[in-house]
């Protein structure tokens, strides 16, 4: 037990002191945050640019619509006439809105044009369209002698809240949330297995190549060495993920402090809407959906997700990293690992693909089968759990996972024990089978 | 004499290949025991079994009279032929780690290592990485790592490979010093001159079988060829040679010294003694040289392996 601790400590330190580990650990969150900052910055730069739009309103009743906002200024060039205004706009302004003379309100919306040097941004056009539509509508309502206040009072917004029979509410937002929760955890396991499994394999090959292996196993059992290596690497990996999570969180917080206010206003991408409209849009969509999302978040089986994440994470990582260790022991150099890598990568990649279909149909036969199959269950089951999985399936899947884990570790330890002392042979599967019987 | 290590009828097969077939050896306490044999004879298999790296299919191993148990790895120091250290780990950290794996406490290991590093004058390497050292330097560290926990039984597999003559001598002296301090040494090598120099006992393994073992001197007696080298000074060489050849079986010796006329290798028959030969020669000529040819470890090795064909 004491020796295992020593080995874990050495493997952990060897990994953590490695330059590439340190660089990756520090650089990754910086890169991520840097990328997000760049996006925000570009977004901001874009919307900081003040556009000046000329207006030629020959109808003379819509001019009041064009009120200056932070990002857009309007200049009334009606007095110049269309042709002259066009020339001036081409030289000086972003674009020109032309509203032709029209006697009846009915035809007012026809023949309105936008002239510009470059193709105008969709945002600009639709914002102008909105403004005009509302104004014309209000004018029409007035003409019909209907009270605008009454119309407003009659406006209704319907949003269907769906709910399953045990009382859990669900919604589109909720589904997306489940997808993110399940997919995120599944993907995390996938990444962890690949990164740290390979790292275990490399470390075994390194010990073999430097020929220290025989010195070590004259002091400890090969199984202890293998387990120490797997666990030491796992701790290094967990440390890295924790550092990433914390530093990314901190950096994001800092970024939001610096860019906070502007970021929220500009990121809504509705900068050009008038406050009334913004209010309405938020009322109708965001507020309700946000509330539902928060509710959904509370309704997610967080405890189940957390608990099963730990089980599947440990099970999946231990299964795959012992296979990786066995492969490392069987070969002399990393180039020889190719023939063994495919069968290892295959179930992992399949699991991720099945994961995508799980999102569409979380309880279909494929999803159920792959969430029970132990080589794919750590990823697929985790993706399913947020959608609610019957307990018997979770328990069966975990049971299979643990049985497989024991079998694979036994199998890998045998290959490992023989392989670490074999040099110069390029092992075939037949050879490996023979080793099992030694 | 008490045996530190007893190997009793140990067999080991890998699939269809037999690595060891019913091998028994006894290693007396305080001896330097040479484990000899051609490449692929099964020496490394036996050494790995003694180190509990692999298990025998049958037979048993006793260390100080006890059946081999996991805790016995602490009583053994093993320098494998395929050896190395973590390339990117610092010399000191590495030695401390390996010492602790051999059951030493951190403080104890540090003290012992300081002693050995000072002895080998390599203290300034403590913070260097192995990849920064030369092969010979790394071998020194490796030797220290093998012996630092003062094990009762030391197993060296080709300990001198990678050392220049000066350092090989240093290591040889250290091995003998360890023996004098009470350790027992098993020594596997192909360099027969070092067997001659160091070993009290030997065992010869060939094709998975032990074909020879015992005290080196006894084995030499056993392999005695009853051959004598004689140098003679005389007046008539032709007559002398005729006389000798009539009586004994001879062949020319490859060497001849200045004041000799004849130098011969004489093979005596079972019933003849060296006394007879001296008497005979003394009457014919002046004897300038007379030695019994004692087989070297190299000769014994070649002969025993050839006989086993």
Automatic annotation (TrEMBL), chain A:
<keyword id="KW-0812">Transmembrane</keyword>
<protein>
    <submittedName>
        <fullName>ABC-2 type transport system permease protein</fullName>
    </submittedName>
</protein>
<dbReference type="InterPro" id="IPR013525">
    <property type="entry name" value="ABC2_TM"/>
</dbReference>
<keyword id="KW-1133">Transmembrane helix</keyword>
<feature type="transmembrane region" description="Helical">
    <location>
        <begin position="340"/>
        <end position="359"/>
    </location>
</feature>
<feature type="domain" description="ABC-2 type transporter transmembrane">
    <location>
        <begin position="19"/>
        <end position="413"/>
    </location>
</feature>
<feature type="transmembrane region" description="Helical">
    <location>
        <begin position="238"/>
        <end position="261"/>
    </location>
</feature>
<dbReference type="Pfam" id="PF12698">
    <property type="entry name" value="ABC2_membrane_3"/>
</dbReference>
<feature type="transmembrane region" description="Helical">
    <location>
        <begin position="366"/>
        <end position="385"/>
    </location>
</feature>
<keyword id="KW-1003">Cell membrane</keyword>
<feature type="transmembrane region" description="Helical">
    <location>
        <begin position="179"/>
        <end position="200"/>
    </location>
</feature>
<feature type="transmembrane region" description="Helical">
    <location>
        <begin position="300"/>
        <end position="320"/>
    </location>
</feature>
<feature type="transmembrane region" description="Helical">
    <location>
        <begin position="21"/>
        <end position="42"/>
    </location>
</feature>
<dbReference type="InterPro" id="IPR051449">
    <property type="entry name" value="ABC-2_transporter_component"/>
</dbReference>
<keyword id="KW-0472">Membrane</keyword>
<dbReference type="GO" id="GO:0140359">
    <property type="term" value="F:ABC-type transporter activity"/>
</dbReference>
<dbReference type="GO" id="GO:0005886">
    <property type="term" value="C:plasma membrane"/>
</dbReference>
<feature type="transmembrane region" description="Helical">
    <location>
        <begin position="391"/>
        <end position="413"/>
    </location>
</feature>
From TrEMBL, chain B:
<comment type="similarity">
    <text>Belongs to the ABC transporter superfamily.</text>
</comment>
<keyword id="KW-0547">Nucleotide-binding</keyword>
<dbReference type="InterPro" id="IPR003439">
    <property type="entry name" value="ABC_transporter-like_ATP-bd"/>
</dbReference>
<feature type="domain" description="ABC transporter">
    <location>
        <begin position="5"/>
        <end position="232"/>
    </location>
</feature>
<keyword id="KW-0067">ATP-binding</keyword>
<dbReference type="InterPro" id="IPR025302">
    <property type="entry name" value="DrrA1/2-like_C"/>
</dbReference>
<keyword id="KW-0536">Nodulation</keyword>
<protein>
    <submittedName>
        <fullName>ABC-2 type transport system ATP-binding protein</fullName>
    </submittedName>
</protein>
<keyword id="KW-0813">Transport</keyword>
<dbReference type="GO" id="GO:0005524">
    <property type="term" value="F:ATP binding"/>
</dbReference>
<dbReference type="GO" id="GO:0016887">
    <property type="term" value="F:ATP hydrolysis activity"/>
</dbReference>
<dbReference type="InterPro" id="IPR027417">
    <property type="entry name" value="P-loop_NTPase"/>
</dbReference>
<dbReference type="InterPro" id="IPR050763">
    <property type="entry name" value="ABC_transporter_ATP-binding"/>
</dbReference>
<dbReference type="InterPro" id="IPR003593">
    <property type="entry name" value="AAA+_ATPase"/>
</dbReference>
<dbReference type="Pfam" id="PF00005">
    <property type="entry name" value="ABC_tran"/>
</dbReference>
<dbReference type="Pfam" id="PF13732">
    <property type="entry name" value="DrrA1-3_C"/>
</dbReference>
<dbReference type="InterPro" id="IPR017871">
    <property type="entry name" value="ABC_transporter-like_CS"/>
</dbReference>
């Amino acid at each position: 037990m004491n020796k295992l601790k020593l080995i874990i400590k050495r493997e952990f330190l060897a990994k953590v002191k490695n330059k590439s580990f340190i660089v990756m650990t520090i650089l990754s969150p910086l890169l991520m945050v840097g990328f997000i900052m760049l996006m925000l910055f570009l977004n901001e730069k874009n919307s900081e640019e003040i556009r000046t739009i000329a207006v030629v309103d020959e109808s003379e009743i819509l001019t009041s619509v064009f009120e200056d906002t932070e990002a857009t200024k309007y200049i009334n060039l009606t007095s110049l006439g269309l042709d002259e205004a066009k020339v001036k706009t081409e030289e000086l302004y972003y674009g020109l809105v032309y509203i032709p003379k029209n006697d009846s309100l009915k035809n007012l919306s026809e023949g309105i044009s936008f002239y510009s040097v470059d193709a105008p941004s969709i945002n600009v056009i639709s914002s102008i369209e909105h403004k005009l539509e509302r104004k014309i509508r209000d004018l029409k309502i007035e003409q019909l002698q209907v009270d605008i206040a009454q119309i407003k009072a009659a406006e209704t917004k319907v949003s269907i809240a769906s709910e399953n029979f045990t009382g859990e509410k669900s919604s589109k937002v909720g589904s997306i949330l489940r997808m993110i929760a399940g997919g995120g955890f599944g993907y995390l396991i996938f990444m962890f297995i690949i990164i740290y499994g390979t790292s275990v394999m490399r470390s075994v090959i390194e010990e073999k190549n430097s020929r220290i292996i025989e010195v070590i196993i004259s002091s400890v059992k090969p199984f202890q060495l293998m387990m120490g290596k797997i666990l030491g690497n796992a701790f290094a990996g967990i440390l890295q993920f924790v550092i990433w999570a914390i530093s990314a969180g901190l950096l994001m917080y800092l970024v939001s402090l610096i860019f906070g206010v502007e970021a929220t206003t500009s990121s809504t991408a509705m900068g050009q809407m008038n406050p009334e409209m913004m209010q309405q849009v938020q009322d109708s969509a965001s507020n309700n959906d946000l509330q539902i999302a928060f509710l959904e978040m509370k309704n997610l089986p967080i405890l189940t997700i957390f608990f099963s994440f730990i089980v599947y994470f440990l099970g999946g990582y231990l299964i795959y990293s012992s296979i990786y260790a066995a492969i490392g022991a069987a070969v002399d150099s990393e180039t020889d690992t190719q023939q063994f890598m495919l069968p290892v990568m295959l179930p992992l990649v399949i699991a991720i693909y099945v994961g995508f279909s799980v999102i569409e149909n979380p309880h279909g036969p494929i999803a159920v089968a792959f969430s029970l199959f132990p080589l794919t269950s750590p990823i697929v089951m985790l993706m399913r759990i947020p959608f609610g999985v019957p307990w018997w399936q979770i328990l069966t899947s975990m049971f299979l996972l643990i049985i497989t884990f024991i079998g694979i570790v036994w199998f890998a330890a045998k290959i490992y024990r023989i392989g670490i002392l074999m040099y110069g042979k390029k092992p075939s599967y037949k050879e490996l089978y023979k080793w099992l019987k030694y | 004499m008490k045996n530190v290590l007893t190997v009793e009828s140990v067999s080991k097969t890998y699939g269809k290949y037999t690595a060891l077939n019913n091998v028994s050896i006894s290693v007396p306490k305080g001896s330097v025991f040479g484990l000899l044999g051609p490449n692929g004879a099964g020496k490394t298999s036996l050494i790995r079994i003694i180190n509990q790296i692999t298990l025998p299919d049958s037979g048993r191993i006793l260390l100080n009279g006890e059946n081999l148990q996991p805790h016995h790895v602490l009583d053994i120091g093993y320098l494998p032929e395929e050896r190395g250290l973590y390339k990117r780990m610092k010399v000191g950290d590495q030695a401390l780690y390996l010492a602790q794996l051999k059951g030493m406490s951190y403080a104890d290991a540090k003290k012992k290592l300081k002693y050995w590093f000072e002895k080998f004058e390599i203290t300034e390497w403590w913070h260097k990485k192995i990849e920064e050292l030369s092969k010979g330097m790394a071998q020194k560290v490796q030797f220290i790592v093998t012996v630092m926990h003062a094990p009762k039984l030391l197993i060296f597999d080709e300990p001198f490979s990678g050392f220049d003559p000066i350092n090989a001598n240093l290591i040889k002296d250290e091995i003998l010093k360890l023996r004098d301090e009470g350790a027992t040494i098993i020594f596997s090598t192909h360099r027969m001159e070092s067997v001659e120099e160091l070993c009290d006992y030997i065992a010869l393994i060939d094709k998975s079988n032990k074909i020879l073992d015992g005290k080196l001197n006894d084995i030499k007696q056993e392999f005695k060829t009853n051959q004598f080298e004689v140098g003679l000074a005389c007046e008539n060489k032709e007559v002398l040679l005729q006389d000798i050849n009539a009586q004994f079986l001879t062949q020319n010796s490859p060497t001849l010294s200045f004041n000799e006329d004849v130098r011969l290798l004489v093979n005596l028959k079972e019933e003849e003694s060296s006394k007879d030969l001296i008497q005979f020669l003394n009457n014919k000529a002046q004897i300038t040289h007379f030695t019994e040819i004692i087989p070297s470890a190299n000769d014994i090795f070649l002969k025993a392996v050839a006989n086993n064909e």
